[in-house]
Amino acid sequence: MFSDYRFRGVSLSDRDVALQGTVTATHNPTGIYAGFWSSTIEQLNGAEAELDLYAGWAKELGPVKLDVGATGYVYPGGDDVNYFELYAKAGHEFGPLSTTLSFTMFQTRRIRRKTITTSVSAVRSAFHRRR
């Protein structure tokens, strides 16, 4: 249970509680994975839930983390709202900093869009001891 479901900055639960769950299966030697994720949403063209089906390949090649895959966004009962994305990501950690470069291609029946994003984040362990 989550207080709000936001996707790319937009509340899909209308700032209300959302029930969510996920299951992922990974084949560790190869890096192949598949799974689904689901959430309740505010009514969207007849749909009251989102089901994301995804599959891909993720592997660490030396210091670089790679992830390539596809996600289908399904809205059961919704009218013309389903879509899919293809994605590729590469990341690297520099001590407490991590950086990611990603490319996403998004497709619906009416819209095709490509995006490139970068992110840099710093993480400090809550268990880090000061000296």
TrEMBL record:
<dbReference type="InterPro" id="IPR010239">
    <property type="entry name" value="CHP02001"/>
</dbReference>
<dbReference type="Pfam" id="PF09694">
    <property type="entry name" value="Gcw_chp"/>
</dbReference>
<protein>
    <recommendedName>
        <fullName>Porin</fullName>
    </recommendedName>
</protein>
